[in-house]
Amino acid sequence: MSTILKENLIGLDTHRVIKVYLPPGYNDSKRSYPVVYYCHSIFSTAEKLLEDGKLVNVLEQAFANKIIPEFIFVVADYSSPTTGSLYENSPVSGRWLDFTVHELVPFIDKQFRTISHRDSRAITGDFMGGRGALKLAMTHPEVFSVVYALHPVATGAGYIPWAANEVNWKKIHQAKTFAELAGDGRAQMFVAMAQAFLPNPHRPPFYCDFWMEPDNGEPKLHTENTRKAQAGFLLDQSLEESAPNLQQLRGIAFDWARYDPTPTHVYSNQAFTRKLEDLGIEHEAEEYRGTPWNKNWIANGRVYSRMLPFLGRWLVFEGKE
Question: What does pTM read for this prediction?
Answer without folding.
Answer: 0.96
